[in-house]
Design brief:
Layout (H helix, E strand, L loop, with lengths): L1 E6 L12 E2 L8 E6 L21 H50 L9 H11 L7 H10 L1 E8 L3 E8 L2 E8 L4 H11 L12 E8 L4 E8 L6 H7 L4 H19 L10 E3 L8 E3 L5 E3 L6 E4 L4 E3 L14 H4 L8 H21 L24 H10 L14 H13 L10 H14 L5
Antiparallel strand pairs: 1-3, 2-3, 4-5, 5-6, 6-8, 7-8, 9-12, 10-11, 12-13
Helix pairs in contact: 6-8, 6-11, 8-10
Length: about 450
């Protein structure tokens, strides 16, 4: 007798014919078909088959329930997704409608046809002299159209924007730089702060979208960019050099000077003066920007108002007393003298790009040949304080009257002893005489 085995599923068995026998339990993994004969190899050509299995009613019921549960799960998930999408779409549309409704209401505060120049002039002649009214600032901020990003720094980004067709610069601070935004806004809105050689402030605002906050500072736009960018691409003549140096001195002098009166202005020290924080105007003059680290002096209480920002100045431009931590933080004049040191380095940057006798040096940062591109405190301390070095000058400076005078001026600005440095008023008067002698119009 030969046995032929055929594989089966683990489904319940069905009664077999006389020639079939189920050898295992109803849930067995193997079913066998047996046929008998009387001769050898008589079953060689046999092809035994098993009858088709028909599922029982219980199995059909389980399959239907499984399909039902899967269908219900899919439907519930789809319903939840549709509900979430509809909710957020409704919320977005509601916020958009409210924004446009508020914008239409705010339009009443700025009549059509009013330019930024008109609004600022009105605020200066009829207001407190501390900038545009808050509601007007917020209205302008809402109406700004961002065009493109034009710069990025450690504080945030700078964008070119448009307001009613006028170009403006929009400084967008990182959220972690809120203290810098607040400080710069406070300084710009100081009474009698506006000056032609200080970046023109227009508005400040905070925009919250629910998920993140944007801190905006809107100012005049100067297409020539910073002094740093300008000097890298442009060579100067004597008149251009004097115009830039004198206008920068005028802006710094306005900052440093206290104006007395009922609506007076406190003395202010910049604390982060460098070529990247000075902007070039179309007429070839400069204006000072980035007042996020500025210090104010209250002469009534004799107190120095130092910002709470964690930012510090730029190491390459730091005065010796800042690097060796000998600066008297309770004495306002110490901050003023540190600005003068930085101003001397900026004059050096300008003078290198002045052409005399057909010769001019490439643009370089101060101490470019003495410290790495990103110097540490230790690098600058070693060069400026320990070795007492200052930026090098070429021999051609001594053969030109203007550059020789500028060399003398900057040397007196970056003196190691703060008390030996010139005041910005003295610098301004010295440059004014040079400007007059050259018959330069500013």
């Amino acid at each position: 007798m030969r046995t032929v085995t055929a594989p089966t599923t683990s489904l319940p068995a069905k009664p077999q014919s006389p020639t079939e026998q189920l050898t295992d339990s109803p849930r067995a993994q193997t079913r066998r078909t047996i046929e008998c004969c009387n001769t050898d190899f008589c079953n060689k050509d046999l092809m035994p088959t098993l009858p088709l299995y028909t599922p029982t009613g219980d199995y059909l019921s389980s399959a239907h329930w499984l399909a039902f549960l899967i269908s219900m799960t899919v439907c519930c998930c789809a319903l939840i997704c549709v509900t979430v999408v509809c909710y957020y779409r409704y919320k977005w549309q509601s916020e958009r409608q409210r924004y446009h409704r508020d914008l239409e209401q705010d339009e009443a505060f700025i009549p059509a046809g009013e330019s930024l120049k008109d609004l600022i002039h009105q605020s200066q002649s009829s207001g407190s002299g501390s900038g545009l009214p808050l509601l007007v600032q917020r209205t302008i901020a809402k109406q700004i159209q961002m065009v493109r990003q034009i710069g990025k720094g450690r504080y945030g980004e700078v964008w070119l924007g448009r307001w009613r067709g006028e170009k403006v610069a929009v400084k967008v601070f990182f959220t972690r730089e809120e203290a810098s935004w607040f400080r710069e806004t406070e300084i710009y809105q100081t009474v009698l702060m506006r000056h032609e050689n200080i970046l023109g402030f227009i508005a400040a605002d905070i925009k919250g979208t629910g998920t993140f906050t944007q801190l905006f500072l809107i100012t005049d736009y100067h297409e020539n960019g910073s002094l740093y960018d300008f000097l890298k691409l442009t060579m100067l003549d004597t008149q251009a050099l004097l115009r830039m140096a004198y206008s920068t001195a005028c802006g710094l002098c306005h900052l440093h000077t206290e104006i007395y009166g009922t609506q007076g202005k406190p003395a202010i020290a910049h604390r982060d003066l460098k070529s990247k924080n000075i902007l070039m105007k179309k007429n070839g003059t400069c204006c000072i920007a980035d007042l996020g680290l500025a210090v104010k002096f209250n002469s009534d209480t004799n107190e120095v108002d130092v910002p709470l920002s964690t930012r510090v100045g730029t190491r390459r431009y730091m005065a010796p007393e800042v690097l060796d931590d000998s600066l008297n933080k309770n004495h306002f004049q110490a901050y003023i003298m540190a600005d003068i040191y930085s101003y001397g380095l900026i004059i050096w940057e300008m003078a290198r790009r002045c052409v005399t006798g057909g010769i001019v040096e490439d643009y370089q940062c101060p101490y470019y040949d003495m410290v790495p591109s990103e110097p540490s405190y230790e690098d600058m301390l070693e060069v400026v304080c320990v070795k007492g070095l200052r930026p090098t000058v070429s021999n051609r400076w001594n053969s030109d009257e203007c550059l020789r005078a500028m060399l003398k001026l900057m040397s007196e600005c970056w003196a190691h002893n703060p008390a030996s440095r010139l005041t910005i008023l003295r610098v301004k008067k010295t440059l004014a005489k040079m400007v007059e002698s050259q018959d330069i119009k500013i």
